[in-house]
Amino acid sequence: MLSTPLQAGNLQAELVDEQGQPLANAVLTLRSATGSVAEPGTAIMDQRSQQFAPTVLAVRSGTSVAFPNSDNIRHHVYSFSLAKRFELRLYQGTPSAPVVFDSPGVVVLGCNIHDWMVGYIYVTDDPWFAVSDEHGRVTLDQLPAGSYTASLWHPQAPGMLPQAAGELQLTEAAKQQRFTVAMQAPAAQAAPSAPASAFGDAFKKARDAAQ
């Protein structure tokens, strides 16, 4: 549930799961009733200690994302996701050209050398968005007063699909408040008979959600 009204200009949110525990790496997006449009920008998805950093990156459609490799070994980054298929073959340092993510959706990232490396890029057309920190906190600054529709996404959400989070009204006279959004935990699954690829599991969830 969303609590309203909230202070215009600085929206603070706490994202939790259905047990009320803080939910890191969750995406909160807002779109206004006036249909505001924001320009795409640039972003960075790094590789550090053989992990994607950040684990979840949210970007606006049309954003150019650089993929620097801060490790002292080579990585081979790729995605088969419908929202963006691409491949950056074995490299160190930073590729000369960024990758443009021009379609909304979930892009699951993997490394062809290190199967445990999994990252996510959430591409949205909504003008305002943020990813929760380790405490489940999100802050969105400089929001104009008005009506907004909120949505949520998390890699472990059922079907890896975005979820509607209701409407909220921001007014200049309102005090700053917090709201909590509960997300459904995925159903428990039986352990596989053989070790599975983390990327393969994540990609399958995203592929099934897009069908």
UniProtKB/TrEMBL annotation:
InterPro entries: Cupredoxin, MauL. It comes from the Bacteria. This is Methylamine utilization protein. The lineage of its organism: Bacteria, Pseudomonadati, Pseudomonadota, Gammaproteobacteria, Pseudomonadales.
